[in-house]
Amino acid sequence: MTQPAGGRIAVAMRMHPGPGGLHTIAGVIARHRGDIKSVDIASETDQEARVYLEIELPGELSSAQLVDDLRALPVVTDVMLVNTLQNIYGKRVIIMGGGAQVGQVAIGAISEADRHNIRGERISVDTIPLVGEAALADAVRAVARLPRARALVLAGALMGGDIERAVREVRERGLLVVSLNMAGSVPDAADLVVTDPVQAGVMTVMAIADTAKFTVDRLQRRIF
Amino acid sequence: MTQPAGGRIAVAMRMHPGPGGLHTIAGVIARHRGDIKSVDIASETDQEARVYLEIELPGELSSAQLVDDLRALPVVTDVMLVNTLQNIYGKRVIIMGGGAQVGQVAIGAISEADRHNIRGERISVDTIPLVGEAALADAVRAVARLPRARALVLAGALMGGDIERAVREVRERGLLVVSLNMAGSVPDAADLVVTDPVQAGVMTVMAIADTAKFTVDRLQRRIF
Question: Given B36, B85, B98, which is nearest A22 (Cβ)?
Answer without folding.
Answer: B36
